[in-house]
Specification:
Layout (H helix, E strand, L loop, with lengths): L9 H7 L8 E4 L5 E3 L4 E5 L2 E5 L6 E8 L2 E5 L3 E5 L6
Antiparallel strand pairs: 1-2, 1-7, 3-4, 4-5, 5-6
Length: 87
């Protein structure tokens, strides 16, 4: 199968990154629990924000503001999911 470059994913990525982040549910890579981002434990220190799993305290996500960049690391999130249709 022939591959494309990252620009081919622009449509899919633009759908995700315009959704309300706190409405998403995350599955913790540490313990497997799933819950809304709005319910995680948030710690702000210096130039960054750390989101931790409320069940096991695993770091789910880090956001850092450095100079003219925003960096996000999500190694503690196994799956990040948004519901796009009404139930």
């Amino acid at each position: 199968m022939e591959h494309l470059d990252g620009n081919a994913a622009a449509g899919d990525l633009s759908e995700v990154f315009t959704l309300e982040a706190t409405a998403a549910t995350a599955t913790c890579a540490g313990c497997g629990d799933t819950g809304h981002i709005a319910d995680v434990h948030v710690y702000e220190a210096g130039m960054g924000t750390v989101l931790r799993c409320p069940s096991c305290d695993t770091v789910l996500l880090r956001v850092v503001h450095a100079r003219d960049e925003v960096l996000m690391e999500m190694r503690g999130v196994r799956v990040l999911r948004w519901r796009t249709a009404a139930e």
